[in-house]
Specification:
This protein is α+β, with helices and mostly antiparallel strands and 406 residues long. The protein is built from eleven helices and 16 strands.
């Protein structure tokens, strides 16, 4: 189920000291995922194996408060569209840290490259955690050496654990497409509303695909998965999704096959993030149909998904249609109350201008509202535009998690 369940990759996750333990445990906070594809002879100067750089692609945050690791990874990817390793830390975002932050992100790449025996530009870097604090580079420097030494084809789960922040569970996925595989790891429990990507995610595949093919597949997959996820309407400074290909698969593939496998993995990760969103008790699939255009469907979906009133009603297990209808009416799209229909699962609560009689089936609807997974269907009755987003409720747990930074 992990990034190392794909041929050609090794990984590790360790505790280096960025996060402080509680006395009984030392939380993992540093990960390395590297190529396990060898080529040529060992590097005699550094006593390291000559691991081949792999074709790579990335999608990054569009937040203008762009974290240093995003700037550095973009720069490195632009040089050759390849990577030999990715180094990732949790506990500190290295965002809003100025010139020092950029130096530290570059140093993380240089230290990893030195340990592996590759060029600095062949290393990508990701960070996640609190904004506005400088990295503990002494801890990271010794930690990178330990992490690289610990890399193995069984290290995927530990690497995934090492990038967790407020996550309560590791997030992994694996798709076997027959002739090739796609594995993935991710973190994300809040600040999940992207324009391009969300959270941190690293995908691996053994497909024999060049960088441009990977970039197209990843870009298309992100549009219909991570870009259709919103938990709180906030976008991170560090959002990064990376895809590396080891080319170890025996059979060639086409673009459509690769895109679908990548999309399936991303969809699994997005759902896992919603299920683990900070304080949430409901994961809500919000489907909007009958809009005048697809763009108007997306407008309504996001308006409802991010409405504090609607999210609170979900937490209270209340299928109150009035709040949803109100948000539709104020969203600025083509709207007519007499063509609007709203349903929770199979239970229609408002149909074309008339509230539905819930008395005969109220207990069934009440039972439905107690579940973790809810489907809310809004049909505007205005055209053929439609979209689906995944969101969550708003709870006291979310507030408690975000009241302070430490």
């Amino acid at each position: 189920m992990s990034v190392t369940d794909v041929a050609g990759f090794a990984a590790a996750g360790i505790h280096c000291g960025i996060k402080q333990g509680d006395g009984s445990s030392s939380p993992l906070d540093l990960a390395v995922v590297r190529s396990d594809v060898t080529g040529g002879t060992a590097n005699m100067a550094t006593s390291t194996t000559n691991f081949q750089p792999l074709a790579a692609a990335g999608v990054f945050t569009s937040n203008k408060l762009t974290a240093a690791p995003v700037v550095v990874s973009r720069r490195h990817l632009a040089i050759g569209g390849s990577a030999t390793a990715v180094v990732l830390n949790s506990g500190n975002a290295n965002a809003a840290t100025g010139a020092q932050g950029l130096k530290d992100a570059e140093k993380m790449c240089a230290l990893t490259a030195q340990e592996i025996g590759c060029d600095t530009e062949e290393v990508l870097v990701c960070s996640t955690g609190l904004i506005g604090f400088n990295l503990a580079m002494d801890a990271i420097e010794s930690g990178i050496a330990k992490a690289v030494a610990a890399c193995s084809p069984q290290g995927g789960p530990a690497a995934t654990e090492a990038i967790m922040t407020t996550d309560t569970a590791i997030k992994q996925a694996l798709v076997d497409a027959g002739s090739f595989r796609v594995g993935a790891m991710a973190k994300g429990a809040a600040m999940l509303q992207p324009n391009m990507a969300t959270m941190l995610a690293l995908l691996t595949t053994d497909a024999a695909a060049p960088a441009d093919m990977l970039q197209q597949a990843l870009g298309e997959a992100v549009k219909t998965t991570f870009n259709c996820l919103t938990t709180d309407g906030a976008q991170s400074t560090n959002d990064t999704v990376l895809l590396l290909a080891s080319a170890q698969a025996e059979s060639p593939l086409n673009q459509a096959q690769l895109t679908e496998a990548v999309r399936e993995v991303c969809a699994s990760l997005a759902r896992q993030m919603a299920d683990d969103a900070e304080g949430s008790t409901k994961t809500v699939t919000l489907k909007v149909t009958g809009a005048a255009t697809a763009e108007e469907a997306a407008t309504v979906a996001r308006r409802c998904a991010n409405s504090q009133l609607i999210k609170c009603s979900w937490y209270g297990c209340d299928p109150y249609w009035g709040r949803i209808a109100s948000e539709c009416g104020v969203s600025g799209v083509a709207f007519d109350v007499d063509t609007l229909t709203i349903a929770y699962g199979d239970h229609v609560v408002y149909r074309q201008g008339v509230p539905s009689d819930r008395q005969s089936a109220s207990h069934t609807l009440d039972d439905y509202m107690q579940g973790r997974q809810l489907l809310v269907h809004i049909d505007l009755g205005q055209g053929e535009g439609e979209t689906t987003v995944v969101t969550t409720d708003l709870t006291p747990g979310y507030i408690a998690e975000n009241m302070r930074t430490s």
